[in-house]
Amino acid sequence: MEIESCRFCESPINKFMTYGKMPIANAFLTEEQYPQEYFFELAPSYCTKCSLFQLIDQPDPKLLFHEEYAFLAGTSAVMQEHFKSLANQVIDRFNLKPEELAVEIGNNDGGMVHYLKDLGYKHVGIDPSKNVSDIATSKGVTMINDFFGDEIASKVKKEFGEAKVFLAANTLAHIPDIKSVFSGVNNLLSKDGGVFITEDPYLVNVFEKTSYDQIYDEHVFIFSLSAMSKICEEFDLEVFDIEPLPTAGGSMRYFICRKGQQEITERKVKQTVLEDKLDLFNKAIYLEFKKNCERSKYELFKLLSDLKAKGNVIAGYGATSKSTTIFNYCGIDNNLIDYITDTTPTKINKMSPGKHIPIYDYNYFCENHPDYTYLLAWNHKNEIVEKESGKYKGRWITHIPKVRIHDTF
């Protein structure tokens, strides 16, 4: 259902562009499912009062996170190292003791609590998708298969106690009822030095890279430090530190505590000043982003069309959620992309959402190297380059930060 006011503060919102009718990003499907395919208008906006960047419409979360959810975090070795690193940071920096509770929401098939579990720490993971929850459970992670909010927070608190550490990675952006999430955090977080650590794609990075493919149904929000700080204030919480991250194409990690319990770091202060200079309340920055999106769309379609006109075979690398926005916004279908290669079992031999490009397994790609490969999983570029070094002899296509062809990376 389309909103007319901010999902957080209920102030007026400004819609500044649309990406058109869009299918569910992770709803990879068979030909028999075409008639039932769901579409909605993918249109971002920003709040005139708190600057929160948000979708005007989002499908029912139950259509997005379910027993056949297609994304498995455990398939990326880089992300596993990333989660392991944060788990160790939590222990070292915040002196987490094994008997103190760590809670993670949206931990998918393992997450950070998986590593804390291996080290003998008290933990709970919470995820609404049954298939990934079952995988995490099979690894020995204590799981609750549900959407997080005040009610689940009370349930966890009653059964396990307060959380010394509360974790979320690429999760908050997915939850439309952001007030319920923060109310739940406020309810569950220990009043004795509890810390909430969350990370999501960062709005300033999206603008700088024109990474419009970060905008899809699951990302109902793309946070800035300014917006995150305003949300925290509502619940007597505050951001005391931040950490820019390369993950997800450019993310921000926010360290949050009860007001006055931690010292505010210099890097948080500097980032606040930077955002103030950018003026995220000014419509001009959003209209500039719109113009950059339209230019990228035109250049990508023209490049692919010119290459296909010369008889080239073009494959996509990575059947990502982000690729759904790219293909449907830019009008790219099976006439321009011959197939997409992926390693996720739940996606193989299905079709991409909306444009119905076939998805083949990685062996097919290795045995039938295309002339050009469009790097859709660009946020995993380093991992992919290392994997394909010395093997793939064709040329690469990227669209971040600009549309271009590479002989090599």
Rounded to an integer in angstroms, the radius of gyration calculated over CA atoms is 21 Å
On the 0 to 100 scale, the average pLDDT is 92
Neighbour order of strands in the largest sheet: 8-7-6-9-10-13-12
User: Do you know the CATH architecture of the largest domain?
Assistant: 3-Layer(aba) Sandwich
Poorly predicted runs of 5 or more residues = none
Please write the CATH class name of the largest domain.
Alpha Beta
Give me the count of strands.
Answer: 19
Main sheet: strands, sense, barrel: 7 strands, mixed
CATH superfamily of the largest domain: Vaccinia Virus protein VP39
The chain-level structural class is alpha/beta
User: Number of domains in the coordinates?
Assistant: 2
- What would the CATH topology of the largest domain be? Rossmann fold
Gross morphology: globular
End-to-end separation in angstroms reads 43 Å
Number of helices: 13
Estimate the strand proportion: 15-25%
Name the helicity range: 25-40%
Notes on the structure:
There is one protein chain. The protein is of the alpha/beta class and 409 residues long. It has 2 domains: 73-281, Rossmann fold (3-Layer(aba) Sandwich), CATH 3.40.50; 301-406, 3-Layer(aba) Sandwich (Rossmann fold), CATH 3.40.50. The protein has helices at 61-64, 77-93, 111-118, 130-138, 150-160, 178-188, 203-209, 225-234, 266-278, 283-309, 321-330, 362-367, 381-388, and strands at 13-15, 21-23, 39-41, 44-47, 53-55, 101-105, 123-126, 143-144, 163-169, 195-201, 221-222, 237-245, 251-258, 314-317, 339-342, 359-361, 372-375, 395-398, 404-406. The strands form 4 sheets. A 7-stranded mixed β-sheet has the order 8-7-6-9-10-13-12, sandwiched between helices. Helix 3 (111-118) links the parallel strand 6 and strand 7. Helix 5 packs parallel to helix 6 (178-188). The radius of gyration is 21 Å and the shape is globular. The mean pLDDT is 92. It comes from marine metagenome. Residues 6-65 form the Methyltransferase putative zinc binding domain. Pfam families: Methyltransf_13, Methyltransf_14, Methyltransf_23. This is C-methyltransferase domain-containing protein. InterPro entries: Methyltransf_Zn-bd_dom_put (IPR013630), Methyltransf_Zn-bd_dom_put_sf (IPR038576), MeTrfase_14 (IPR013691), SAM-dependent_MTases_sf (IPR029063).
